[in-house]
Design brief:
The protein has 181 residues and is mainly α. Helices cover 91% and strands 0% of the residues.
Length: 181
């Protein structure tokens, strides 16, 4: 396949990123306009997605035995997490409570990851990486600690943050689609 054939094949599908971009913008606007309802539906969709991915991971064991232990573990974990979320959303619990609990867990993971990336940046700076990794590492640690110690505020702001990011990604995808065309 030559480079021109690859480019021609990509330009035929320019509408795919456009559709993805429009959907991302609409979902982002929905997060901004009605964050509670959108969060509930988003988390419910996430639960069903994890169930499907878990089943696919387990079925993949029968087609490809490489890494079967990891596939089994991730498959079971996906199914259990998905069932937990879906049962919380559709069961006796209040769906907004389940969505909030998932948001708190996401915020906790995000805060810890941000702190770890900050520490790695500081280590790079001390190993001769320059002052820029030190600045970013320090900011990362401060931002991660702020998220960690203000978890409820961060979790409450999460739908708006997701909405803004989705709108930005959507605009980027739409521009990229028209450039591909």
């Amino acid at each position: 396949m030559t480079a021109t054939t690859a480019i021609a094949g990509q330009s035929d599908r320019w509408w795919l990123p456009l559709v993805e971009g429009i959907l991302a913008i609409l979902l982002g606007i929905s997060f901004l306009i009605n964050p509670a309802v959108t969060s509930v539906w988003f988390v419910l969709g996430l639960g069903f997605y994890w169930i499907m991915i878990g089943i696919i991971d387990i079925v993949r064991i029968f087609r490809d035995r490489d890494g079967w232990g990891w596939k089994l573990f991730s498959g079971i974990l996906g199914i259990v997490a998905g069932l937990y979320i879906v049962s919380g959303m559709l069961g006796q619990n209040h769906p907004l409570g389940t969505a909030f609990a998932v948001g708190v867990a996401f915020t906790l993971v995000l805060a810890v990851m941000t702190i770890i990336y900050g520490v790695v940046g500081l280590i790079r700076a001390f190993q001769g990486g320059g002052w820029w990794p030190a600045v970013l590492g320090g900011l990362g640690i401060c931002f991660g600690l702020a998220m960690l110690f203000n978890q409820m505020v961060t979790t409450m702001a999460l739908p708006w943050s997701i909405g803004i990011v989705l709108i930005g990604v959507g605009i980027f995808l739409c521009v990229a689609a028209f450039r591909m065309r």
